[in-house]
Amino acid sequence: MLKEKVEKALNLQIEKEGYSAQLYLAMASWAEKNGYNGAAQFLYHHADEERGHMLKLFHYINDRDGYAIVPALKQPPSKFESLKAVFEGVLAHEQMITESINNLVGICVEEKDYTTQNFLQWYVTEQIEEENLAKTNLDKLALLGDDKASMYMFDKDMAEMAASLGATDTAE
Ligand code: OFO
Predict the structure, then answer these.
(1) What is the residue range of 107's domain?
(2) How many domains does the chain have?
(3) Is 17 in the pocket of ligand 1 (CB under 6 A)?
(4) pLDDT tens for each residue of 108-126
(5) Does 16 contact ligand 1 (Cβ within 6 A)?
(6) Rounded to whole angstroms, how far apart are CA atoms 136 and 102?
(7) Which among 31, 35, 48, 169 is placed 20 to 30 Å from 63, CA to CA?
């Protein structure tokens, strides 16, 4: 049985993972509309992954006799300055999520809920990957510069990365 404080904190995390999916979907749509189909594929795929992160929390809460609540949809931005601004946004967002997961682990320790703490280790590890991926993408952008040819190369690279992550071509 989940303690009320832990259940509440897990439901808040559901909201954040749901917003991650919304945000990456908004970024994917912007990328698609601006001719960056590779980046769009990557971001559509990322949005799906975030929904997966949210669902994992749903099942955990309900399996532990809590009640997972579907959060209201919060609208993400629809305008982005550039592809670089999009990927800077991804990193900033992931850093916020990492902090949120760490706080959640802290609550579990305070409440002596070691089962949930153990469950959350998956998210702790995932956040290392998420932040690294966001940093790698920004490093590539910094190396390439921001002229049109470089953007084309970056976008091609994103398409390859999306394919390697198993993304289906949703940006067509
Ligand atoms: Fe769910 O890891 Fe990104 O936000």
Answers:
(1) 4-164
(2) 1
(3) yes
(4) 999 999 999 999 999 999 9
(5) no
(6) 22
(7) 48
